[in-house]
Design a protein that fits this description.
By secondary structure, the chain is an alpha+beta fold. It contains 7 helices and 6 strands; from the N terminus they run αααβββααααβββ. The strands form 2 sheets. The protein has a 4-stranded mixed sheet, covered by helices on one side. Strands 4-5 form a two-stranded antiparallel ribbon.
């Protein structure tokens, strides 16, 4: 348990570092892209500067039509300047939005990877059971905080497995059928015990809980994946 906790803490720290460095990389890359983009954009007053030069370098433009043309150029420069300012604002908003999306995508990706690792650890280690209470009178079983109401046959099967686990025994299907039916194990069919195990798993309902709680040991039989000190029977 200590090694598992230490490895889980190390994995958590590693995941946190990945998220922090990933977010920092995204922000830096997009900030550089935004900086280069804004630098490459022309100055908003560039057009107005050119128009002012035309005014300054062409003092001979004195007729009404010429002055009107210069006024139109000046107005066009002002319009261009306003449009360019609005473009800068739009680009800034889009970059902020892209940064938020990439950061969210990175966080969700790391969360999915962490959940997949956790699920793999659960499948490898089995379900961590701190308490298993079996009540034959009420046909009920309480597994940690989960309560199940089972059929009498399922309770009998679970009780047999629990008693075997407390004795550190692994029971074959024939032995399970022998204890429940009262017959000699040699006269019992292995398939009958296997069917009882299947019905117990079906009664538990949750596939992951059922598969991990009742372990199938190849060529030996069945046992509960529970610490024997955690089992209580009433």
């Amino acid at each position: 348990m200590a090694e598992t906790s230490a490895s889980a803490s190390a994995a958590l720290r590693s995941g946190n570092r990945v998220v922090v460095w990933g977010i920092a990389a995204i922000v830096v890359i997009l900030a550089l892209a935004a900086l280069l983009l804004f630098i490459s954009l022309p100055d908003a007053n560039a057009f107005n500067t050119r128009v002012e030069r035309i005014f300054a370098e062409n003092d001979a433009l004195t007729t009404g039509d010429q002055i009107k043309l210069l006024e139109i150029l000046a107005q066009s420069g002002t319009a261009f300047s306003e449009v360019l300012v609005s473009y800068r604002a739009i680009i800034f908003v889009l970059i902020v939005f892209a940064t938020a999306l990439l950061v969210a995508a990175l966080v969700f990706l790391v969360m999915i990877v962490a959940l997949n690792r956790r699920m793999n650890e659960i499948r490898k280690q089995g379900i961590q059971v701190s308490s298993l209470l079996i009540s034959r009178a009420e046909n009920a079983v309480v597994l940690n905080d989960m309560a199940f109401t089972l059929t009498p046959a399922a309770i009998e099967t679970l009780s047999v497995l629990a008693e075997a686990r407390m004795d550190d025994d692994v029971m074959s299907g024939a032995e399970i059928e022998s204890v429940i039916s009262g017959k000699n194990a040699a006269d019992c069919d292995e398939a009958a015990g296997a069917m009882r195990i299947k019905r117990l798993r079906d009664a538990l309902g949750n596939q992951m809980v059922a598969e991990l709680l009742v372990k199938n040991i190849a060529r030996r039989g069945y046992m509960l994946s529970v610490d024997k000190d955690a089992i209580r029977m009433i």
